[in-house]
Specification:
Helices cover 0% and strands 60% of the residues. The protein has strands at residues 11-12, 15-19, 22-31, 35-42, 48-54, 60-66, 73-80, 83-89. Strands 1, 2, 3, 4, 5, 6, 7 and 8 form an eight-stranded antiparallel β-sheet that branches.
Length: 90
């Protein structure tokens, strides 16, 4: 995930995401000191919602689901504690 701009309120727009060869546009996104949420409109698949929390060590973990199918969730974790945007399915 590449965050290109961040507003003072923690929201960001105009950013992109990539998982393997699949790319998507990040929309409706924001981050605080404790929480992270965004929607990725994948170019070759359904839109996904990503919701996470930073733990006391700063590690980001969360859940994801296809928009409209909240009952089908998967876990994810940030791979690199120093790089906010490296996400992988847990």
């Amino acid at each position: 995930m590449t965050i290109t701009t961040e507003d003072g309120d923690g929201s960001f727009a105009g950013s992109t995401a990539q998982f393997g060869d699949v790319k998507g546009d990040i929309v409706d996104a924001r981050a605080t000191d404790t929480d992270f949420t965004c929607q990725i409109n994948w170019h070759e698949g359904p839109s996904g919602r990503y919701v996470g929390r930073f733990d006391f060590q700063g590690r980001l973990t969360g859940i994801t689901y296809a928009v409209g199918h909240e009952e089908q969730q998967a876990n994810w974790v940030c791979l690199d504690d120093k790089t906010f945007g490296l996400l992988q399915h847990a």
